Amino acid sequence: MPTIDVYAVDGKKVKSMELKDEVFGIKPNEAVVHSVLVNYLANQRQGTQSTKTRSEVRGGGKKPWRQKGTGRARQGSIRAPQWIKGGIALGPKPRSYKYRVNKKEKQLAIRSLLSSKVLENSLVVVDKFDFPEIKTKQVVSAMKNLKVEGKTLIMLSESNANVQKSARNIENVRTTSVATINVFDLLKYKNLVVTVDTIKKLEEVYA
After folding, report:
1. What is the pLDDT of residues 98-129, one digit of tens each?
2. Exposed / middle / buried, residue 36 (Cβ in 10 Å: 0-12, 13-18, 19+)
3. What is d(CA 15, CA 39) in angstroms, rounded to the nearest whole number?
4. Exposed/middle/buried for 74, CB within 10 Å: 0-12, 13-18, 19+?
């Protein structure tokens, strides 16, 4: 089992704790992570793009000139695709890009990324975030004390308004919870800061 140090928000080491191999000690599966990431991004697409066909473009009801005798190519409508301001042939229409991946694949992808954080020394465990009020400088100070720099994802075991609202104005810092964790955020943010309760919740859900 991998062992990791636990710190207080002032940066002092509190204790060490063991992490479960099934969640934080597996060999990362890059293929599954890629598959789940592509699925996540596809599901975020709105699919509202739309073009008008020749039947939807206004005008063009009258044949522009007679069929024969003019020396020009025959035309049936000035709203055919080859005309300026004409309809679009085979253009995009509103559609859904959503599709599902296996639940076990999603869990394996999450476990792979959590294990990667441990291997890269990007996982920081905090005893608890016990902020009495909503103040941005509390989170800024905590990140400085913990020597966390760069893009940081703070994962909580459950909703905590004081932490979430204190961190929302800090550049490159985002908060999430075990219930809303996704591969995109885990890949986007280099550092992962969690509490002891979050570790226990992750092990309970993904072990």
Report:
1. 999 999 999 999 999 999 999 999 999 999 88
2. buried
3. 39
4. exposed
